[in-house]
């Protein structure tokens, strides 16, 4: 049976408030929704934490930073662009916890960024990996043991549906193939990162937040947006604040290597094991795509 939110909240508070050194926390996508709620929750549980949020919305950041304790910060960046991610990462001097919660919900077809990556894949996958890669040296030297959380969809990936001949989906893009690639590649890339001996003190968690009442649905076409809002109005979905506690619980509960967690932060056990060649191929493709930009 999964724990109630108040139990999980108390456990998060106990763990975060008793860390020997206050954590340096970076929340990408921390200006809204789940990322915002996670940044505020961590700062509440550990007021001495240094919490930095990253996003584009400066007005939202102005409202959030005062809730992050004395050491809250905002870095403005368009994280669909690899060049902006590199610049943002250079502004960070220490990181123990990295939360990757940037994203969009759209039914649009392939939408190239100025760097010719699909916008959604850049946000949900390539840019997240680049953040990890850029911040790995800092995560490795974390005295608490670095923690990386991917907030995406840990039970959507399907290794048998990866299009190995068009991994960036430049010629075969669809909304569902983009979702399958972003989630399956995340499943595989955390295995790659965890397998590197230099990363032995870092844990990598891929989480599914569930249906969360955030502004994510605001850019959907009218009918889908109204449908989503109606579901929220009748009580379907959970608040970003409750979700944040489950996500923090899942992240803190990953004690070694990599793990997939569900919307309660509990381990998902029915994942299909990956072939080592798949992990290698995804890593080769990803590093080539991000280093070319
Ligand atoms: N909510 C759900 O039910 C649900 C379900 C499954 C998965 N998820 C996943 O969970 C993640 C968080 O979702 P959410 O519900 O919290 O969404 P949200 O409230 O819309 O927040 C999305 C965040 O992503 C940032 N972002 C988007 N595009 C960006 C860009 N180009 N540059 C910089 N930041 C950008 C936004 O910041 P700015 O606006 O400041 O740029 C915002 O902070 C997403 O990846 C989503 O796919 C959510």
TrEMBL record:
The keyword NAD does not apply. One of its GO terms (molecular function) is oxidoreductase activity. InterPro entries: NAD(P)-bd_dom_sf, SDR_fam, Sec_Metab_Biosynth_Oxidored. Keywords: Oxidoreductase. This is Uncharacterized protein.
């Amino acid at each position: 049976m999964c724990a109630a939110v108040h139990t999980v909240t108390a456990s998060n508070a106990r763990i975060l408030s008793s860390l020997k050194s206050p954590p340096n926390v970076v929340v990408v996508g921390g200006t809204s929704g789940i990322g915002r709620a996670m940044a505020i929750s961590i700062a509440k549980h550990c007021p001495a934490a240094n919490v930095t949020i990253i996003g584009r919305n400066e007005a939202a950041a102005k409202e959030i930073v005062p809730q992050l304790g004395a050491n809250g910060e905002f870095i403005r960046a368009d994280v669909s662009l690899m060049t902006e991610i590199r610049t943002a990462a250079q502004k960070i001097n220490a990181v123990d916890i990295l939360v990757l919660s940037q994203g969009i919900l759209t039914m649009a077809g392939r939408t190239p960024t100025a760097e010719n990556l699909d916008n959604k894949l850049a946000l949900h996958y390539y840019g997240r990996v680049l953040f990890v890669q850029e911040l790995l040296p800092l995560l490795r030297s974390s005295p608490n043991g670095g923690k990386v959380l991917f907030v995406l969809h840990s039970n959507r990936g399907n290794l048998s549906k990866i299009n190995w001949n068009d991994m960036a989906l430049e010629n075969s893009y669809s909304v569902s193939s983009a979702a399958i690639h972003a989630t399956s590649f995340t499943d595989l890339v955390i295995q790659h990162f965890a397998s590197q001996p230099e990363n032995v003190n870092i844990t990598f968690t891929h989480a599914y937040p569930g249906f969360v009442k955030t502004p994510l649905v605001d850019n959907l076409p009218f009918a889908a947006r109204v449908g989503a809002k109606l579901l929220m109005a009748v009580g379907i979905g959970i608040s970003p604040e409750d979700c944040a506690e489950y996500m923090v619980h899942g992240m803190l509960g990953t004690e070694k290597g990599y793990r997939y967690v569900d919307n309660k932060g509990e381990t998902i056990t029915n994942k299909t094991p990956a072939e080592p060649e798949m992990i290698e191929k995804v890593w080769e493709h990803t590093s080539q795509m991000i280093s070319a930009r």
